[in-house]
Amino acid sequence: MSRALRNVYRRYSAMRERRYVRSLLPISEMTRVEKAPGVERGVFATKYISAGTLLGTYPGHRRSIHEFMEKGEFLDNSLRYAYYLNANTVIDPSDLFGYVPDTPALRLALINEPPPGATINVVSLASESNIWYACLRAVYPGEQLLTSYGKDFQRSYPCDLSMTKGAVPCDTKDLDQILHIGRSHPWLKDSALLLHKVSMEYQQAGTGKQKKDTLAKAA
C-alpha cells in the first residue's frame, strides 16, 4: 500500500472511531462497582454483554512520561492505574490524590486483572489515539470483568491463561475473537493482528513447555 493510501485509510479509520465513540452505550448501564474477592473494588456486569462488544476507551488525562513520573514521585498510588498509550504518552485516570473515584466516566479504569487461576474476559487494543477495551468472551450478569495488565504482571497475558508455571496455551476461540474485533473495527486492526501474533507465540511456547514437561515426567 502506498503512503497516500495509508494516510487515507488512517483518516477513514479515525473518522469511524470517532463516530463509534459517540454511539457507545454508557458503561454505567452495563456494569456496577462493588467489593471483589481479594481487592477493594471490581467491575461487575449487570447485563449480558456479548463477545466482541467494545466497552469503551480507557479514561484519563493524557500526560507526558516526564509529567507523569513527577506525579508518581509524590503519589505512587497513581502508578497503579496508568496506561501507556505509546513511548511518550500515559493515560492517567487518577485524581490529584492518586485515587480513581467510581464515576461512569472512569469505570473502565477499575477493571481488575484476574486472580490466580482465573482468566480474562476483556482484552485491550490500541488505536493511534486511544486504548480500547473489548469483551473477549460473553460476560453474564454478576460476572466480574477481568483484563490483562501486561507482560510485567504476567497473570494473564496476553489472551487467556497465566503464562506462569503450569500454563495452558491460549484458547483458539479467543484468538479468533481477537481477529474478529480487528476486522469489525478498522482502527483496531493493526493492534488486533499484533496481539494475535503475540498470543500465537505464547501458545506455541506453552505447547512446547507442556511437551517438555510430559517427556520429563515420562523419563
Please describe the topology of this protein.
Elements: H1 3-23, E1 31-36, E2 39-45, E3 54-57, E4 61-64, H2 65-74, E5 83-84, E6 89-92, E7 122-126, E8 131-135, H3 172-184, H4 189-218
Antiparallel strand pairs: 1-2, 3-8, 4-6, 5-6, 7-8
Helix pairs in contact: 3-4
CATH architecture, by name, is Beta Complex
Q: Can you tell me the CATH topology? A: Beta-clip-like
What structural class do helix, strand and pairing data support?
alpha+beta
- The CATH superfamily turns out to be SET domain
Strand content: 15-25%
Q: Return the domain count.
A: 1
N→C terminal distance: 53 Å
- What is the radius of gyration computed over CA atoms, rounded to a whole number of angstroms? 18 Å
